[in-house]
Design brief:
single chain; alpha+beta; conserved putative lor/sdh protein from methanococcus maripaludis s2 fold; OB fold (Dihydrolipoamide Acetyltransferase, E2P); Helix Hairpins; four-stranded mixed sheet; 7 helices; rod-shaped
Length: 495
């Protein structure tokens, strides 16, 4: 019983202790809440300040650079064709792909045996015609001499007839003598007529012989020309390409056997959008001779050439857009027809243009400028050009500080801590300042072949709307292209 009584007392004391501790804890918690509520109500809220990179908008006179892609073409290209059919019996050691030849240089010879025989036959015909002419000339001379003799005999017979008539009138001559004299005169005149006929025949023979000689000379010239055509020479200095024959091979007439290209007469052809083309027109609507820089990147080696725009294609072309423009190159060292180049065209200068990072411009063509108390305000500007990662704009922002990198957290009325490139960070209080991270798309650099394939796919895809197509072509023309867009396009073409 004594143990039971002690246990009950112990339990009572334990319960009393727990109750006292719970009551004390409640009192302490209530006091803490009251203090926190009192302190929180009295502490003022602080404005959140964001850091932002800013730069000063400075108007400049800028010559924008238009970037596109083009192909090198040769202005002097000659298709070498076989002038006649036959077997190639001689071939120049330079008649091969890439062979350098000079104007007038021998290239090949086709078996001339048949042509030489034709020349011999034509010359023989000419000799026969010339012999006939000489024979006809001698016959004419003989006929003319015989005519002269016949005319003399006629004159004598005419005088004899007159004498007989005189004698008959005096009664000395007879009538039969007069008749005999008349008969002799008639015979002489008939002879004259015969000789004149012989002369006409001889003249006809001469005319025929002269005609035969002319035809024979034409035949000789034709045969000589055919013989000369058996040998092919270079029309101008250049390089051979697409050679398709060997010595001993057979060729048919007019068969293309090679191509002769002048490597020093090159030009670049590139396509511009209608908007880009319009910026290269003068007041009369004529294409200006804008300077051009052609760039070829070959495994880290850059080949550059300069030139001027000279002309544009007369038509757009079926299934094409924009304008095809041509520019001659001042230097062609290292370039070959078919090279795919990056083309930079210098546009007419823009006055009072302001260069800003592309990240400073919103989709609505507005920028954020720094105002009083470092608060931002939004101003709409006019987009003039896009230049790679920069934009050229105009507007009422000259001399103002513009936010270089816009984010969703920045907007009109927001107070910022300006970060100036020339001054670094400001000395203002940095407490409660949030650093804003600019989310930019991942970019990549494309090689010329890969870029050309993507450009061709976009241009030839009729399912892409024109505005989207123009925007994609503009992005593909930049040095760095969004990786996501490249992957999306290559997934469609199987690249």
């Amino acid at each position: 019983m004594r143990f039971l009584g002690r246990s009950l007392v112990a339990l009572f004391l334990l319960a009393l202790t727990v109750g006292l501790l719970g009551w004390a804890a409640q009192i302490s918690f209530s006091a803490l809440e009251a203090r926190q509520a009192r302190d929180g109500g009295s502490r003022p809220a602080r404005e959140r300040v964001l850091a932002a990179n800013v730069l000063t908008a400075t108007p400049q006179t800028i010559a924008p650079v238009l970037t596109t892609f083009g192909e090198v073409r040769a202005r002097r290209v000659l298709e070498l064709r076989a002038p006649t059919a036959g077997r190639i019996v001689e071939l120049s050691d330079r008649f091969e792909d890439g062979g350098q030849v000079e104007a007038g240089q021998f290239l090949l010879r086709i078996d001339p045996a048949g042509a030489e025989a034709d020349v011999a036959v034509a010359r023989a015909d000419l000799s026969g015609a010339e012999a006939e002419l000489r024979d006809a000339t001698r016959a004419l001379d003989l006929a003319q001499a015989e005519l002269a003799g016949a005319e003399a005999q006629r004159d004598l017979q005419s005088a004899a007839l007159q004498r007989q008539r005189d004698l008959s009138q005096r009664g000395v001559g007879s009538t039969s003598a007069v008749e005999a004299a008349q008969l002799a005169l008639s015979s002489a005149e008939s002879t004259i007529l015969a000789k004149r006929g012989a002369i006409a025949q001889a003249q006809t023979r001469i005319d025929s012989a002269e005609l035969a000689i002319e035809r024979a000379r034409i035949a000789v010239d034709t045969a000589l020309r055919d013989l000369a055509d058996r040998e092919l020479t270079a029309e101008f200095d250049g390089q051979l390409s697409d050679v398709s024959i060997l010595a001993g091979g057979l060729v048919s007439a007019n068969e293309q056997i090679a191509t002769l290209i002048d490597p020093d007469a090159l030009e670049v052809a590139f396509r511009l959008s209608a908007a880009q083309h319009s910026r290269l027109l003068d007041d009369r609507g004529n294409l200006i001779g804008a300077p051009v820089r052609a760039i070829l990147d070959v495994q880290g080696l850059t080949i550059e050439a300069t030139g001027l725009i000279t002309r544009e294609s007369a038509s757009v072309g079926e299934g094409q857009t924009g304008r095809l423009v041509f520019a001659t190159l001042d230097t062609t060292q290292g370039l070959r027809p078919g090279d795919f180049l990056r083309i930079e065209v210098e546009e007419p200068v823009l006055t009072a243009a302001i260069r800003l990072p592309a990240t400073a411009l919103s989709a609505q063509s507005s920028v954020l400028v720094l105002g009083d108390e470092d608060r931002l305000s939004e101003i709409v500007v006019t987009l003039l050009r896009r230049q790679g990662d920069d934009v050229l704009v105009s507007g009422d922002i000259a001399g103002r500080e513009v936010v270089a990198e816009r984010t969703a957290a920045l907007g009109a009325g927001i107070r910022v801590r300006p970060l100036r490139p020339e001054a670094g960070t400001s000395d203002t209080d940095t407490s409660d300042v949030a650093q804003v991270r600019v989310e930019t798309p991942t970019l990549m650099t494309l090689d010329p072949e890969r870029r050309a394939r993507l450009v061709a796919f976009v241009e030839n895809n009729s399912r892409i709307p024109d505005p989207v197509k123009s925007r994609m072509l503009t992005q593909l023309a930049d040095e760095q292209v969004p990786t996501e867009m490249v992957e999306r396009l290559e997934s469609r073409i199987g690249g």
